């Protein structure tokens, strides 16, 4: 099928490349000419393992191309995916749909023959209805359908999540759209990926409900970790004991500094706003947002406490800045609030991250960056592990100990074994594992 994907970002580019890999003919459209030219030259605008190779192969085999001009890109397309950004509006947390409606107007102007317009971006309940109303108002005579098809892609695992999804959710209001969308995903359907058809509003809400639930699960285990610290229990063992119950499952039960990223914080805020708009407040999700935000700063204060409560002019090394491993994305990363707390207390921050330092420079204030974790810890009074990058999981603790001024290790991702860290001479502080007293 001929498919147009509008927005060559985390969602649109991965979706476009994977749809091309299914055998469809895909045009990825982006209004950022620099980004389009980069993609045509094989330069990826995002850090996503495997994406460069997947893109190159499909471009070489003639199934994937990049276009700056939307009219050209969507010509003859049977399906047009809207995969543009829907960031949080700072003032009220509602999803900013400016780009979605701008693109919708452009699609309407260029519609030429039946097409299914698909909202793939995460959009508040009712947006797809609004897209349909807008197109209808601009082109009353045009033949088209609007569908919702939210993505469930994790950064760093997006290609696998697209190609081997737990489920595909498609919201449609007519049979023709249903047939077209079934054809889009037939290659996946054949390998048993459940293709769930709902109405559009149900599809839109399913996305928010799924992300808010995952954010709730993480926040729940983070609060259990707090109780573990006071009661001397081990949160990793509690999580294991919980997760063996098939109704709970082991995933997303890793206690840490709080969740970040471009989705959970945004989607939790948007769902809260939807609840407020319809006067059905979702108090659990409101608590999740509040608890998570407080936790990030609390983790900064935990580092300060581990240094005896005073860090003025002392050096704190922060290893791992991105919101999770295998990405360069700093959006809402816990490291931002943690480092702000350290700097507010007069600390000097040394930082290392395998992939995120370029992006970090734009969001972190006065931080000194190093290309190597050992350089970052030299002369430091404490080292905090904030993101569980593979390359941070087997540091030479004895070497680290020898480089530091005072050997304090705050492991916010529980990647080290307390006894080993203590045997290496560290004052070791973790999350939900034993007492906090250094
Ligand atoms: C998430 C959803 O997983 C994905 O399905 C959706 O489409 C987009 O949002 P993503 O934001 O890329 O994906 O990352 P994810 O792996 O979900 O982690 C989100 C945050 O939760 C990260 O900051 C991560 O460190 C944190 N997290 C995750 C935990 O603190 N503990 C966990 O057990 C899991």
From TrEMBL:
Q: Which GO terms describe its biological process?
A: polysaccharide biosynthetic process; UDP-glucuronate biosynthetic process
Which Gene Ontology MF annotations are present?
NAD binding; UDP-glucose 6-dehydrogenase activity
Q: Which residues form the UDP-glucose/GDP-mannose dehydrogenase C-terminal domain?
A: 317-418
SMART domains named in the record: UDPG_MGDP_dh_C
Keyword Lyase present in the record's keywords: the answer is no
What keywords are annotated for this sequence in UniProt? Answer: NAD, Oxidoreductase
Question: Could you tell me the superkingdom of the organism this chain comes from?
Answer: Bacteria
Residues reported in the UniProt entry to bind NAD(+): 30, 35, 86, 122, 155, 266, 331
Which residues are substrate-binding? 152-155, 207, 252-256, 260, 324
Q: Which PANTHER family match?
A: UDP-GLUCOSE 6-DEHYDROGENASE TUAD (PTHR43750)
Q: Which family does it belong to?
A: Belongs to the UDP-glucose/GDP-mannose dehydrogenase family.
Q: What NCBIfam families does the database record attribute to this sequence?
A: NDP-sugDHase
Name of the protein this chain belongs to: UDP-glucose 6-dehydrogenase
């Amino acid at each position: 099928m001929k498919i147009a994907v509008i927005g060559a970002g985390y969602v649109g580019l991965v979706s476009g490349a994977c749809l091309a890999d299914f055998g469809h003919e895909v045009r990825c459209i982006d209004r950022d000419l620099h980004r389009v030219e980069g993609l045509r030259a094989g330069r990826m605008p995002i850090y996503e393992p495997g994406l460069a190779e997947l893109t190159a192969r499909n471009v070489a085999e003639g199934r994937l191309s990049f276009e700056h001009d939307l009219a050209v890109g969507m010509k003859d397309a049977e399906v047009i995916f809207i995969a543009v950004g829907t960031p949080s509006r700072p003032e009220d947390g509602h999803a900013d749909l400016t780009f979605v409606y701008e693109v919708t107007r452009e699609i309407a102007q260029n519609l030429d023959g039946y097409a299914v317009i698909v909202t793939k971006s995460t959009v508040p309940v009712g947006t797809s209805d609004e897209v349909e109303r807008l197109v209808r108002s601009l082109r009353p005579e045009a033949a088209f359908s609007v569908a919702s098809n939210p993505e469930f892609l994790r950064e760093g695992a997006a290609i696998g999540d697209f190609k081997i999804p737990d489920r595909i959710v498609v919201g449609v209001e007519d049979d023709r759209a249903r047939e077209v969308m079934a054809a889009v995903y037939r290659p996946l359907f054949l390998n048993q990926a459940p293709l769930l058809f709902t109405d559009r509003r149900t599809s839109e809400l399913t996305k928010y409900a799924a992300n808010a639930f995952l954010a709730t699960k993480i926040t729940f285990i983070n609060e259990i970790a707090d109780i573990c610290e006071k009661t001397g229990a081990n949160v990793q063992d509690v999580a294991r004991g919980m997760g063996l119950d098939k109704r709970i499952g082991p995933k997303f039960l890793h206690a840490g500094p709080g969740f970040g990223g471009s989705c959970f914080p945004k989607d939790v805020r948007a769902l809260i706003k939807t609840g407020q708009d319809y006067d059905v407040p979702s108090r659990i999700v409101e608590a999740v947002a509040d608890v998570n935000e407080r936790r990030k700063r609390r983790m900064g204060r935990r580092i300060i406490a581990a240094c005896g409560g005073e860090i003025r002019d002392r050096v704190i090394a922060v290893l791992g800045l991105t919101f999770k491993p295998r990405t360069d994305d700093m959006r809402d990363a816990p490291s931002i609030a943690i480092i702000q707390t350290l700097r507010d207390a007069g600390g000097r921050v040394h930082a290392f991250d395998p992939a995120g330092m370029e992006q970090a420079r734009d969001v972190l204030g006065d931080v000194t960056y190093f290309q190597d974790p050992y350089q970052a810890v030299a002369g430091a009074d404490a080292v905090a592990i904030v993101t569980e990058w593979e390359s941070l999981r087997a540091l030479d603790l004895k070497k680290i100990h020898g480089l530091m001024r005072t050997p304090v290790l705050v492991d916010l991702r529980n990647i080290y074994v307390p006894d080993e860290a203590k045997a290496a001479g560290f004052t070791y502080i973790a999350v939900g594992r034993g007492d906090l007293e250094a």
